[in-house]
Structures are given as C-alpha cells and as structure tokens.
Known about the structure:
A: alpha+beta; Jelly Rolls; 2 domains; B: two-stranded parallel sheet; 4 strands; globular; Ubq-SigPath_Reg (chain B); CTLH domain-containing protein (chain B); CTLH/CRA (chain B); CRA_dom (chain B)
Amino acid sequence: MVAPANNSVNVVADALSLYDFGGGRKTPEEEEMEEEEEAPTHINTKRSLQFLVISVDKLSAKYTGDGQHANDVGAFQGNRPAPVRRILYYFEIYIKDRGNKGTISIGFTDEHFKTSRQPGWDPNTYGYHGDDGYLYHGHGRGDPFGPTFHTGDTVGAGINYASQEFFFTVNGKLVGSRHKDVKCPLYPSVGLHSPNERVDINFGQNPFVFNIEALAQEEREKLQGEIETLHLPFSISHSVVRSYLLHYGYQETLQAFDAASGSMVPPVILTTQENGDKMLEEECYALEHRRKLRQLIRNGEINGALANLETWYPHLLKDETLMIKFLLDCQQFIEYIKAGSLEAAVIHAQENLASLLGISLYQSLLQDCIALLAYEHPRESPVGHLLMLGQREAVADAVNSAILATDPALSSSRRSPQSSLEKLLRQLTACHIERWLLNGGQGEACRLHRLLRGKEGPW
Amino acid sequence: MIPSLSMSMGTISLPFLRSLKLLTNHHDDSWEIGGDVIDGGLTFVTAAWASTARGIDAFFASVDKLDVITLREHLYEEEDFPCKQKMSSSKKVYTREEWQKKLNEVKIRKADMNKLVMNFFVTEGYVEAAEKFHKETGTEPDMDLGTITDRMEVRKAIQCGNVQDAIERVNDLNPEILDTNPQLFFHLQQQRLIELIRSGKVEEALEFAQEELAPRGEENHAFLQELERTVALLAFEDTSSCPVGELLDVSQRQKTASELNAAILTSQSHEKDPKLPGLLKMLIWVQNQLDEKVSYPRINDFATAALEDSVS
C-alpha cells in the first residue's frame, strides 16, 4: 500500500489531537507560559533586617542605625521576586521623612543581596539613590541620573521586560531608564542609611502615582505598530483560507467563497505559479469524495460513510491498525446512544469494539464511549462531549486526513498532511515559545488560543 | 558531562561577566554550551570580586576535557580580564527534524482555526461563505450575519467591476465614509478608471482621468504617481505582459473592495481587520526576531507553508 500502517496512525493521531478529546493537553512550555505568577505584596521580614523598624502591615520602614559606615545600611526586599511574565513590573515608595541625609535608595536586587548594603553597590543590584540622584549598578560609583529625593516625594522603580530596561520615576514622572543586563530573579528593594529616614512602600495595594497602565499601553502599541508596518501580500490570507477549505473538504463554503471573490483560482497562483499549481492539485485531491464522506459523518450517517469508504478506499478500512474503522465504529456507537437505542449500542459494541479493548492507542476513547452507557443522562455526564457535533467533526477530519494521505502525488516528506493554516499557526506558536524561552521566560507570553478566542487584543 | 558542568559552576563567581559562551572541541566532536545555561548557572558573589582570575582558573581546571574555550560578550568594565577572548558568534542551530519535533508538540485546536476562518469571512463581508461555513462546520459567526449584507453588496459591486454602484451604496450607508477618507475615494476612482480601460472605453477613460483624477493628483503626489501608473495601461495593446498589468488582475478589485469594506467596518465601530492577516504578520515578525538568535527552518512561502532548510 502507498501509506504504511504506521504513517496512517500518525495522520489520524494528528487529526485526533486537534480536538483534545476530553482533556486539554498542553506542552510544558505552554503551561509555564500561562501559569499565573505571584507578585510581591509586602516587605520580606524573614531575612535578617538590621537597623530597621518595620510596621505591622510590613509596608513601612524606619531606619534606626547611625549611618556611620558602608555596612550599616538598613535595606529590605519584597517578599517575592518581581514577576517576569508580563510587559512591566513596577512599585513605589513614599518618602515620609528624608532623615538627616536623604540616603534613601530604590531599585532591584538578586537573591544574594546583603541587607546591610545599598541596592546598587554590589553586583546584580541596581539602585537609584536619593542623596545624589545617581544610579548605581554593581559598585560604589554611580552615574548622574535624576533628581534627589525629598520628604513628600513618591519615587518608583520598574522593569520593562519588552525593552529589557529598568526605569525610575519621581512624583509620577519618568526620570530615565537603563539597560537590564541580567536575567536572574530580581526583588524590589529599598535601602535607608541615615537617622530618621522613613518610607511607605506601595506594591500595588494602592493606586500608583505614576500612570503605569499608560506606559504598558505605549509599549504594546509600539510593538503592534512594528508588526503592522510589515508587508504582507494582500492575497495571502485569501489563499490560506481557500486552501483550508480545500484541505478539509468544505466544498460548499469553497464554492460560495469563490463565487463571492470573483475567482475560481486563488489569486496568489498568479504570482507564485509553480508552488501554487502544485498546492492546488494536492488539495483538490479526492475533494468530492472527502466532501461526501464529511457530510455523511456530520449527519451521523456512519453506515453510509462506511459503505462509501468500502467502495472508494477499501484499504483504509483494512490496514493493520484499523484506526479509521475503529473511529467510525465508535461514532456509530455514539450515534446509537444519541438516538437512545441502548440495546443496539450494546450489540454494536460487542460485535465491533470489544475485540479492541486491549489496544492502548484506542483505550481512552473506547473507555469514554463505553462509559456513556453508565449515565442516565449521558449528555450531562463527564463524557457528554462525545455527543456533541464536534466529535462528528473530529471523526470526519480523521477520515479526511487518512484519504489525503493516500494521495500518490504526495512526496514522502509530506505524508502527514496539515492545512497550510495549521502549519503557519504551529510555526507561529513554536517561534513565540522559542523566543520567549531565549528571553529567560520574560515578557508577555503569546497566548494564541486566547488571541483566537478574541479575549484580548493582539498582545 | 555538560549538565554536571553547569551544576558545578553554580558557585564560581565571575562578577565581570555578563554572559559567557563556551565552545568546546573535543576529539573533533564539537559541541557548545549556550550562553543562557551559563547565565543562569553562574551566581555572582560579592566576596569573590578580587579572586576573579582564580575563579576562572579553577573553573577551567574543573573542566579539563575542554580544549578550546571562547569567551563572548565579555566585560562591561575596564578591568583587565586574564582570559583570551575570541569574538565568535555562534547561533543555536535547529535541524529540520528537531524543529519538526517542536512543531509537532504544538497543539492547534480545530475549533480555533474554524473561528479564524469564520472571522475572516465575516469581517471581509463574505456572507454566503460565512453561512455555508456555519452549516458545514457548526462554527458560530462572531457578528450578526444580517449586518454583513450591506457590506457584501458593496463588495460584490466592486468585484463585478461596478464601482459607481459601490460608491452609491456606500454613500447611502453613510456619506461620511468617503468624505472623510480621500485616499479611499481616490482608490475607488482609480478602480473605476481601471474598469473603463478594461472594457476598452479609451476615450471615456481619458476624459474620466483628466476630469476626476488629475485634480486630486495635484493635491497629493502619491495619488499622481498612482494615476500615471494606471493611465500607462492605455499604452499597451497586450496588457497581460505589460509591467502594470497587475492592475487589471482580480486581486486589484479585491484589494479595493477590502479597503472599502474596512472603512465601512470602522464607521460601524467594528474591528476593521480580520485576525488572520494580523497573525500572519506576527509570524513574519517573530521569525525575523528569532533569526537574530537561532537558526531554524523558516516558513517563507505562506501559500504553501513549506519549511525551508535552516541556514547554519
């Protein structure tokens, strides 16, 4: 036979996976990307905090040391590192009292930060210092950066994951930003270093003085603008849609689409003739058969579909794996249940399905099907999705794929036919995940699924 | 040995290093450790500032099997660094098989693809296709199909070459659409000129170009260029081989129809663009972004969606 048995299993398994029969499986990367991260909520008092008095709500601090030397700083971190799977992270302090010298600093530090040192003095720490207005990063010399801090000021520090920069604000105004060159977890941090210095910290429990939403929006629009200016030949979407319809054998839609767009030929063929013609030929393969079978399965006429398959593609029902036969038999069983013919369902199962019970590939679908018998109201049961239209569609897609795989014109490298739309979306997702991982898992994740469902804007 | 290497490096301190790339060549069998592993594996401890050189030496000693070591993107301070450096930029390379494996792990839901296609039909005003698609797939349209009918009539008119009819219909819907959108109006007039040329009405075409289009071209240089390009059609007897022949193609009608369709949608405060082209642009963007760091099989021809070979 043209397509070896193994291959047809792959094809069908692919088709089945489109539906996630039951459980929504995700790759570990996808799960990681969608996992919600917890943000810092208060000062971490579990670390030893010297020279400080922390309020009961852990949101205010006062310096109690003498501020005599470089190792009696009273510094603290948030209780968690700044979350990274977002476009921005930001927090603010309110200077209740600048104390004797105003040696207050705000910034970010890694987990090895020593709380007896100012943020910014040591490697992997970054601090904007209020006494001189300098930005310190990694050692005791800073660079001129912004204004000094005074009693009554609100000072903010943030991380822009899109541009990989730190940014700082004073009284709601952006002061400046600096390249972020580490990818390790960073804690929001504050250092106090002269008598009477007092600060309140706002981890977002109160509205920020700085308009952080506007900055986030600006970043999103910047990216959006960058994407929109890219050139995409006009006819591409059209041709992707058209080939999707051909691939799945949605012939009526195809005809309506062609009629409305005034062309029987995808316009793209005019420009990329060789590829286009080949694509067209491939996707038109057995179109009428595929349409007919899809229609039968969608109408629940499984026996009709089986009879036609028997005539047109007998080998598909007889290959070693019996995958297509199995799916159709399961569907027939489901149709009996739907019609309330339990007896017919049981007889059908005994004759056609029982022998397959040991085969692991079929196990889960088969068990779910049989489970339908256990419920008085199968539609409301945990396996009720089997009775939905989507299940018929899935079976129809599997049959469609299996037939496409028998196309002798198909080169051996393309034995697992997917529509070009699916290939493009897979590539899009894989590229996004790869880029996101390369970025240390920082920044907003691409959630294709949600994007398609229209629950959020393009980003 | 590589995984244990990165673990053993956990305590080595290299405060001057931003990221470290190690290339090893052992018995002609070359492999590399990515910068990220190192980045994450190394922790920088203040106390070890002075002993950087020793730290590096100890590190090298602990990996005695490494023959060639390359440091990349090394210092961000002027401090003297006791290591030889070679600026080698080696990208991570995915073979077709490795990449295909990643692609296979991605789950794309059929229902999502159906929604995407439905959104395309509805937004672009293909109401009959949307109805059939609903029937064939059970996918619900994301707006009331009734409201598409007007837009569809307009699209039909343009795609049949009946531009004047389309203009009247749009003005019936909302005269502001064309009043406030000179570029769209120009493109419609241009399409009208194209249709006149197509049907061989040379005199009428010339008259129309001079009276209706030329004055607009004076206001806007881009319009003038477009006008000249269009009028050039008249100079060719066999337009199929002339350089501006694409203007006579059906895709030009579709382009004009889509522009008009988007303007109507905007006036009705709907999303004017279907999601599909946006996603495809996003694919162009993310592939370009990824190119800077990784070599992997790209998709360049979106029509066939074939994977190219990765360039190493």
